[in-house]
């Protein structure tokens, strides 16, 4: 992960985030309006991973200050930068932020047809707790709901 900088994302990153969102999740990408609302919300933290000033990854966490539960909203890394540890660093930073905001557990949904992402989450303490049938549309792919306990 040499040369990659992780920082908080803002609305000035929205164009780059949306390009990566569309490339990573072609059939079920979030809309620009949805992503803008997420990035701007006081209840979320979005991180940007930059290599040579170019956004190569991002991740989001929903963790309202008064809640003991947080949700990983998304993690995406450009295909040319995968398997370099960027996803791991983004996930660790989200878990740290959840802990700092008082969360006791972190939940997420991951596509059942994405075993690489499921392994990443398992390596960081997540366990499958449920399946949401046909959650990802229009692909009719199940979502595996995963949970991780975090200690404040």
Description:
This protein is an alpha+beta fold. The chain has one domain (4-149): Aminopeptidase, CATH 3.40.630.30. The chain is built from 4 helices and 7 strands, in the order βααβββαβαββ. A 7-stranded mixed sheet has the order 1-2-3-4-5-7-6, with helices on both faces. A hairpin with a 4-residue loop joins β6 and β7 (141-149). The radius of gyration is 15 Å and the shape is globular. The two termini are 27 Å apart. The model has no long low-confidence stretch (mean pLDDT 93).
Q: How is the topology of this model organized?
A:
Blueprint: E1 4-8, H1 14-24, H2 32-40, E2 44-51, E3 54-62, E4 69-77, H3 86-100, E5 105-111, H4 115-123, E6 127-136, E7 141-149
Parallel strand pairs: 4-5
Antiparallel strand pairs: 1-2, 2-3, 3-4, 5-7, 6-7
Overall shape: globular
Q: Helical residue percent?
A: 25-40%
* Largest sheet: number of strands, sense, barrel closure: 7 strands, mixed
Low-pLDDT ranges: none
Supply the CATH superfamily name.
Gcn5-related N-acetyltransferase (GNAT)
| C-alpha-based Rg, rounded | 15 Å
Count of beta strands? 7
Oligomer: single chain
Give the domain tally: 1
How are helices and strands ordered from N to C? EHHEEEHEHEE
- The secondary structure category is alpha+beta
What is shown here, in short?
The two termini are 27 Å apart. This protein has 152 residues and is α+β, with helices and mostly antiparallel strands. It has helices spanning 14-24, 32-40, 86-100, 115-123; strands at 4-8, 44-51, 54-62, 69-77, 105-111, 127-136, 141-149.
């Amino acid at each position: 992960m040499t040369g990659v900088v992780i920082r908080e994302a803002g609305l000035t990153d929205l164009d780059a985030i949306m390009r990566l969102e569309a490339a990573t999740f072609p059939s079920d990408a979030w809309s620009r309006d949805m992503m803008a609302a997420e990035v701007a919300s006081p209840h979320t933290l979005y991180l940007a991973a930059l290599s040579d000033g170019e956004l190569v990854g991002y991740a989001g966490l929903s963790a309202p200050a008064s809640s003991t539960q947080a949700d990983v909203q998304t993690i995406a890394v450009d295909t040319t930068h995968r398997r370099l540890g960027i996803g791991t660093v983004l996930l660790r930073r989200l878990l740290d932020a959840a802990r700092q905001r008082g969360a006791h557990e972190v939940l997420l949904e991951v596509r059942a047809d994405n075993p690489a992402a499921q392994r990443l989450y398992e390596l960081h303490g997540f366990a499958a707790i449920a399946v949401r049938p046909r959650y990802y549309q229009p692909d009719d792919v199940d979502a595996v709901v995963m949970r991780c306990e975090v200690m404040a």
